[in-house]
Amino acid sequence: xxxxxxIAPNKVVFIHYTLTSDTGDEIDSSAGGPALAYLHGANNxxxxxxKALEGHGLGEVLEVTVPPAEGYGERNGPGPQTxxxxxxxxxxxxxxxxxxxxxxxxxxxxxxxIAGLEEENVLxxxxxxxxxxxxxxxVEITAIRDATDEELQHGHPHGPGGHNx
Length: 165
Ligand code: ZN
Prior knowledge:
This protein has helices spanning 47-53, 149-154; strands at residues 11-20, 26-29, 36-39, 61-66, 81-84, 99-103, 109-117, 121-125, 135-146. By secondary structure, it is mostly beta strands.
């Protein structure tokens, strides 16, 4: 019998979480929706949060502060750049915080984020919007189960709270 009361590699873990900034603003939360499912040990979460959850058990509530280096990275780029909205396809849905892939002249793809929207322009950034920030998580562990072979191959959980494909 394998232990499904403790978080360890190759377990699918369900968590409810609230993420707040250092100024106390709520950035993201699973409240009101299904618990988030992730595969432990597969880099589904930012490294600092995954590390903090290791070894904890079902029903536990944790408060974890993840520094930028173990979250979305330090901020060291030039900051957001302004491009005209016309640089995007007309039917593109532009949402602040959204990630998208852009291609340079050599055909290399890089991930960019929309840092802000103005009437005529879009602010784009090559760094994640949460780069350079402490991530303050409050996490409740609501379920733990063994991953299936297919989930281990894919590197993510399937079913409710996970991938559907
Ligand atoms: Zn899959």
